[in-house]
Each structure stands twice: as C-alpha cells, then as structure tokens.
Amino acid sequence: MFMGDQAEALRRMVNRKTRSKPRVIAVTSGKGGVGKTNVSVNLALKLVQSGYKVVLFDADLGLANVDIVLGLAPAFTLADVLKGNKSVEEIMIDGPLGLKVLPGGSGVYDLANLSQWRLQEFINALMVLERNFDFVIIDTGAGLHKTVLSFVLSVEEVLVVTTPEPTALTDAYGMIKVIKQQNPNTSVSIIANMVSSPSDGDGVARKLNLVLKQFMNCEVGYAGCVMLDDSVSRSVVEQSPFVLSYPSSLASRSIDKIAQYLLGETKRRNETGIRAFFNKMYSLLQK
Ligand SMILES: Nc1ncnc2c1ncn2[C@@H]1O[C@H](COP(=O)(O)OP(=O)(O)O)[C@@H](O)[C@H]1O
Ligand SMILES: [Mg+2]
C-alpha cells in the first residue's frame, strides 16, 4: 500500500512538473520573406487543433504582421507594452479556435533599438505568462540584429526557416552559427519552405548540415518542409490562415507533419525527463 501511494505521489509530481514548463519556440530566419509568419501562424493553429494551449507572440518589431495574416485588428500591440502603457495580459487577444495572440508593434523601428533592460523586463513578463500555456510560439524578425537575437538566444528551441535559394541558405547558416556559438545547448531545427518536393526539402537540410558539420562541428534537426503552394499566398490575401481555409492543401499537410515532428520531440523530452527524474528519485531512496 505504501509503495502504491508513493508511486501515485511521484506520478503527480512528474505531471505537475511537465505541465508547468511549456515549450517556448522561436521561429526565425537569416533572410527576410522566407515564410516565418506563415509557418508560425499555421503551426500555432495546428497545435491548437491537436488540443494544446498556444500563445502566438509577434516579436517582429519592424515588420509585425501576424495580425494581418490572421485577419485581426488589435487595438493595442507590443509597442504599448514596450512603451510601458499596457501589460502583456492587456494586449493579448483571441485568434481563431482559441489561439491567443500577442500582436506586434508594426513599423516601430525606433523600438527595435530599445535598451536591454526594457527587453529583459518584457521577457520576464512573458515568462510569467507562459505558465498558462503548453506552447509559446514566437515569430521573430529576420537576421542577426540585436532584438532578434535577444529573443532567439533566450529560448531553448529555435526553428530556422529557409528556402532552397542559396542566399536564404547562406543566411540560415549565419543565424545557426551564432546560435550554436552563443548557446550550444539550444535545440535548433530547420524548416525548408517553398520547396518543390520533399526531396528538395531533404536537400536543404543535408546541405546545411554538411556545412555545419565541416565548419562548426555540429548538426541541427530537420523539422520538415512546406511545399511551394498557391494556397499560402491566397490565404494571405484572404487574411485567413491556410490550415483553416485550405485544410487539405499541400501546405497544410506539410504543417501537419511539422507539428507531428514537434510533438514527437515533446514525447521524447518528457520521457527523458521522467526517466531522469525517476532515476534520481530511485537513487535517493536507496541512500
Ligand atoms: N510555402 C509557400 N508557398 C507559396 N508562397 C509562400 C509560401 N510561404 C510563404 N509564401 C509567400 O511568401 C510571403 C512571405 O511570407 P511570410 O510568412 O510573411 O515571410 P516572413 O515572415 O519570413 O517575412 C507570403 O506572403 C506568401 O505569399
Ligand atoms: Mg514575418
């Protein structure tokens, strides 16, 4: 009876531990216009459809457009938070299916150079907020700018979006290099967007990993590809995300696979976490 009670208490502790640490994932890129916002929005919605609580945070300070892709018209944005006029909770709005959105401050280039303490204060506010969610998806800006890197280097998981174009690949490499140099333990995975076939996407991951292995002695994960698909640009014009408007499109099915990849990662992580926890507990009980 004692062993049973103990096992139950352990299980509860493990579950609580798992629940209270959501995954904060930054979606970034080296080059602009490669599909970060579309990936972030549609991936966030896919995770909501899979039953997770998700907040999508538009952290592209220069070119915030999560709200546009979602067809939302927020009254307040991140700019209000960064100016100190509103709290993070006050700017949060409802997107489709119960997705929560933190709208970005569009065109606030002056804020792209905020002092470090404001950003840190903001990240702290976000960390309090994250307790209510399973996933915090952050759509960042592109390139190696200070504000972009502040977000990318503050999280444990990064998705780097690239297209097969050599310019995008080179810039993706530059971004990954900085992340790995500064934070070798960050989990980085690539998303190959606008590919003509899955093997085109495989090629993107292979090329990047070849160079990373040679010059950085590291490799990154491959979260999957998104096919070049007219429904993406159509959904942007219609301001309705393609996983909702065109659920059976190639792009939508691609996002589904990427969500499965991420959820597979959760499972592996939790298994390791739980196993590590039990092992530690076991050795302590034996002392
Ligand atoms: N898989 C795709 N297939 C076709 N067009 C795409 C795809 N992904 C992105 N696009 C096009 O590229 C544009 C830029 O994408 P966006 O997500 O805004 O990029 P970023 O956030 O990186 O600047 C979109 O408006 C869309 O027209
Ligand atoms: Mg964008």
The helix-and-strand class reads alpha/beta
CATH topology: Rossmann fold
Count of discrete domains: 1
Helix content: 40-55%
The CATH superfamily bears the name: P-loop containing nucleotide triphosphate hydrolases
User: How far do the termini sit from each other?
Assistant: 21 Å
The beta-strand count equals 8
**What is the architecture at the second tier of CATH?**
3-Layer(aba) Sandwich
Kindly describe this structure.
With 287 residues, the chain is of the alpha/beta class. It has a single domain, classed as Rossmann fold, CATH 3.40.50.300. 53% of the residues lie in helices and 17% in strands. It is built from 12 helices and 8 strands. Strands 3-4-2-5-1-6-7-8 form an 8-stranded mixed sheet, with helices on both faces. Helix 9 (198-216) links the parallel strand 7 (187-195) and strand 8. Helix 2 (36-49) crosses helix 12 and helix 8 crosses helix 9 (198-216). The mean pLDDT is 86.
How would you sum up this structure in a few lines?
This protein has helices at 2-19, 36-49, 66-70, 78-82, 88-91, 116-129, 146-152, 166-182, 198-216, 230-237, 242-245, 250-286; strands spanning 23-29, 54-59, 93-94, 100-102, 135-142, 157-162, 187-195, 221-227.
Attribute tags:
8 strands, binds adenosine-5'-diphosphate, 287 residues, 8-stranded mixed beta sheet, 53% helix, alpha/beta
List the helices and strands and how they pair.
Elements: H1 2-19, E1 23-29, H2 36-49, E2 54-59, H3 66-70, H4 78-82, H5 88-91, E3 93-94, E4 100-102, H6 116-129, E5 135-142, H7 146-152, E6 157-162, H8 166-182, E7 187-195, H9 198-216, E8 221-227, H10 230-237, H11 242-245, H12 250-286
Parallel strand pairs: 1-5, 1-6, 2-4, 2-5, 6-7, 7-8
Antiparallel strand pairs: 3-4
